[in-house]
Design goal:
mainly alpha
Amino acid sequence: MFVTGRRPHLEGLPETGFDAVVEDVTSVAARFRDATFSLIESGSSVYGDQFERTLGDVAAAFVTDHADLAVGESYESFTLSRGANRNPERLGALQRYYERTFLPQPLEREWLRAHDPELEVVTHGRNERMADYAVYDEGTAEAVHLIVGAANQPGVSYYLERHRDDRSLPESFELY
């Protein structure tokens, strides 16, 4: 799956209509996945929770790719996200899902760097930057509160723990 925006490995090459086609196909695939998952979830009252989960897992095998799985776009995350959306008390279940599903952060970052460099920058770069910001701001603020998505929490926590374990801020750190 491609992330829109800058693609360092394609710099210097002329822009083609192919990029737009790939982004359109990716967008259609994501909408199709969401529609499929919604349809399966809505039928759970008819055919039961166990059949729903099984059908969702089977459908996920057909409508997700390795990049989707790397960012937790499974049927289980879909239903947990929707459940947390409807009832915030279910957020803990979604957070635990991401904690147990994602690879340990250093391994995940290396895997993404090899398979999808843009996604690696978007996810891990952002998580690391947020942790750096919190540590940077900590010296002047009474309290620092970071609000991150459930999928980003394991990464931000990892980078905050690295700071706690004596990793210092880069000298070039600047706020934008």
